[in-house]
Design goal:
Elements lengths: L2 H11 L6 H26 L2 H12 L4 H11 L3 H23 L2
């Protein structure tokens, strides 16, 4: 996750006052969770041949950029998929925080 996006996420989730180590740990876990959700949506949309190719890339020594380029070539709206999962995560987090703040 690039630094600007991480800062925006920290601000949206209200984590600015947390110690840096705690923020970093939460960001890592949040990023992993969002990544898994994106991955699940992507796998639903790839055909079998592309799934096999992507799994080989995922298990191999391929950079994140190469995997993203592959996905962009197969799923034209991959950036919208990622944005959608981030938005859904933020909404879910807001719903949980609202529920416990009552």
């Amino acid at each position: 996750m690039n630094k600007t996006k991480a800062i925006n996420l920290v601000e949206k989730l209200g984590w600015m006052d947390l110690p840096e180590a705690d923020r970093d740990a939460l960001l890592e876990k949040t990023g992993d969770l969002i990544f898994q959700k994106v991955l699940a949506r992507v796998m639903e949309r790839l055909d079998e041949e592309d799934k096999v190719e992507f799994e080989k890339m995922f298990e191999g020594d391929v950079s994140e950029e190469e995997m993203l380029n592959f996905l962009r070539s197969k799923i034209s709206d991959i950036d919208d998929v990622v944005r959608g999962e981030v938005t859904e995560f933020l909404q879910d987090a807001d719903d949980v925080m609202s529920a416990i703040s009552i």
